[in-house]
Amino acid sequence: MADLLEVRDLKIGAHAYEEDGSRREIEIVKGISFDLEKGRVLGLIGESGAGKSTIGLAALAYGRGGVTITGGQVRLDGEDILALSPRGIGRVRGARVCYVAQSAAAAFNPAHKLGDQVIEGTLRHGIMSKSEARARAAELFGILGLPDPETFGNRYPHQVSGGQLQRAMTAMALCPRPDLIVFDEPTTALDVTTQIDVLAAIKRAIEETGTAALYITHDLAVVAQVADDIMVLRHGETVEYGPTRQIIEAPEEGYTRALVDVRTTSKPAATDQSGALLRLEGISASYGSGPQVLTDVSLHVPRGQTLAIVGESGSGKSTLARVITGLLPQSAGTVTFDGETLPPRLAQRSKDQLRQIQLIYQMADTAVNPRHTVAQIIGRPLRFYHGMRGKARRERVQELLDQIEMGQGFADRYPAELSGGQKQRVAIARALAAGPELILCDEPTSALDPLVAEGILSLLMRLQKETGVSYVFITHDIAIVRAIADSVAVMLNGRLQRFGPRDEALSPPFDDYTDLLLKSVPEMKEGWLEEALSSRRIASGGQ
Amino acid sequence: MSDASSGGQRRGLPPVATLILQRLGLSALLLIAVSLLIFVGIEALPGDFASTYLGQSATPQAIANITAELGLDRPIWTRYFEWLGGAVQGDFGTSWASGQDVSAQISRRLGNSLFLAAVAAVIAVPLAVGLGMLAVRYVDRLADRLINIVSLAAISLPEFFVGYLLILFFAVKFGVAPFPATVYDSMSLGERLGAIALPVATLVLVVIAHMMRMTRAAILSIMSSQYIETAELKGIGALRTIIHHAAPNAVAPIVNVVALNLAYLVVGVVVVEVVFVYPGMGQYMVDAVTVRDMPVVQACGLIFAAVYILLNMVADIVSILANPRLRHPR
């Protein structure tokens, strides 16, 4: 018998625009083949641009944006769905093959109730009657661990949390009893403590319904928990394809090995953490008349060291950075920098006080002006803070470019001509150009692929060694914390949960939240998910 | 997020009610401001009723007599509040020219104008929204281009020109439609509809393009949303996706343009009414302006302003109600 899904020599192209405006075809998937049996899960893994989402969508005969499938076959139960008429494809989508998007928050229509959206495809394809579909949805809500399965569907998307939306999206995909589900980074946008629950729910749902799945992610540790087989992709080509255990325990290709042990940067934590370049005492803050988002936070960063602030979204870590920079004046407490108290408001701070603290953002894309060249972007703080002009400024820009390992030829480029990692490097050079003593890094690597992120981290560490700059590094990634932090602050609901030297903060005895956080970080081994969940159950059962 | 929204609604009215009450209050305030503007503006107009009315026989004594008779020698504020007080109760005073009750005269005229506007709206709004959706369905294809070109041509021609063109062809050459569009109290609904066919057609042609284009633009911008892709990947057909998934999220911009055009249908029909000799508010006001019959002009001005404000307020409220986040707080 033929396999459920047979992909043969799949080729997918996209339009790219040259500088002169002419259009050029580029091949983004270059002849991929794989098979998927009924009830099995194949993980597609690779960096952004590897073509993994594009391949996933090809299983629904869909090309996103200007993407077109140019060759090959996608056979579902022996039938090539690429050859179907639009009407025929409409009968496959949402019936036999379903899709779970990365951002369920954007993928659900804000104007309709969740329940109606979950059963819509099932009803439109005439697979079940309305009452059957409603019962099926409630059953799935239950399997996926959503609260009040019977009435959950009456809510609107904005009325539930991100993790719940992602489960509801999974329920929507499972509802018509499809043969195949494409999961496109379903947990990437979630907090690590939420991710583990959603991951477990997806895994259980796959097992109980016996559907086959393509699971797309950039996180090998995540896909190792759900996939039977893994295909590693790079630049639209297969790097390695094999059973999960072989891929993570005995990878054959160099690229796969690099993905498996991606953490190469590490440094021992500083031993003397007594002095303080930056000291926060009893900081509380809120936005306008809204609720308090920071409550009584006190911590310090010694000169030349790195403080990592960890916590999930909404824990107040970015707000803390806004208070330090003066973008959001605190409602109580003091910020002391190099022995002097900083005025709460940005406008009250002197130019030199502003120069001492610089920022690097998560999205380098939006943090650099797309209409300025790299030289203009980096040159701006040189002019603003140091009054440098002409040749002196050009030379200093080149020095900075050398420092961020970008060298000649980049000065006259525009951000659109740079990769994500290069843009982040330019943002780092811009921060350095001011000559700061402290750089606030707000998730500077979370939008980047693991290997690129690794490069940025090692660059930051080298710059610290060379210039003695201090970092406040905001992240949700415990692995980064372990690698680069001297001290660690764990935040939850605007309060400091834990603060101290790294090795102390990340060693037992833990408070409940830090324990949960550490246990939720996926590890690259089969069966981690089950272990983590059972240890959690034991912990909560023991209380 | 969750803390913020739950904190805001703990006490007092639900957010929707608060927003709607705000709109109502604002509209009332705006209407009062407009009434002041109308009154002061008309006061500042050059020329006066007495000299226009008397014409050749205008002696200083006669003018003074009429001025005193109409109470125009009293201070402006006294007259304003007297007028406003009356207007609130639906009494717009008596016409200086005819000596008749303005409210009674207006009510029939206003009825006629609203009838014309309503018939035009009932045809234009669904047609415009429907065509807009159709244009999205076949975006950048022949149907879309055709709809765009025709509607652009219609909006580019001045309404009196469109009106005369329609009269020339349908009333004069083919003789299938009546002209002038006179209506009487004794006419049945069918007869009335027949009589106003041409002015309605003119109005529809004038307002449809604006609404159609806004519908098209608003829905097109929604069509690039991820939830539209979700619908497509669920195998939902293109037309259902547009109507069921895109349109509900485009209500706010569309409703605002519809309201603007409906207001135009009531307020802007002056030219069309004059062209078709239709006994509505517009003609009445134009006649009153020529003889400086201020109570009539003021009343018409205030009613037009009220219609404008009312329709925009309704649009605001519909936009608020169309937002599920406001309708169903967490």
Automatic annotation (TrEMBL), chain A:
It is a peripheral membrane protein. It is found in: Cell inner membrane. SUPFAM superfamilies: P-loop containing nucleoside triphosphate hydrolases. GO terms for cellular component: plasma membrane. It comes from the Bacteria. Residues 5-260, 278-518 form the ABC transporter domain. GO terms for molecular function: ATP binding; ATP hydrolysis activity. Keywords: ATP-binding, Cell inner membrane, Cell membrane, Membrane, Nucleotide-binding, Translocase, Transport. Gene3D superfamilies: P-loop containing nucleotide triphosphate hydrolases (3.40.50.300). SMART domains: AAA. GO terms for biological process: peptide transport. PROSITE patterns: ABC_TRANSPORTER_1, ABC_TRANSPORTER_2. Belongs to the ABC transporter superfamily. This is Peptide/nickel transport system ATP-binding protein. It comes from Pseudoroseicyclus aestuarii. The lineage of its organism: Bacteria, Pseudomonadati, Pseudomonadota, Alphaproteobacteria, Rhodobacterales.
Automatic annotation (TrEMBL), chain B:
It is a multi-pass membrane protein. InterPro entries: BPD_transp_1_N (IPR045621), MetI-like (IPR000515), MetI-like_sf (IPR035906). It is found in: Cell membrane. Keywords: Cell membrane, Membrane, Transmembrane, Transmembrane helix, Transport. Residues 110-315 form the ABC transmembrane type-1 domain. It holds the Pfam family BPD_transp_1. One of its GO terms (cellular component) is plasma membrane. The chain crosses the membrane at residues 20-42, 114-134, 146-172, 192-212, 250-276, 296-322. Its main location: membrane. PROSITE patterns: ABC_TM1. Gene3D superfamilies: MetI-like. The keyword Transmembrane applies. It comes from the Bacteria. GO terms for biological process: transmembrane transport. Belongs to the binding-protein-dependent transport system permease family. This is Peptide/nickel transport system permease protein.
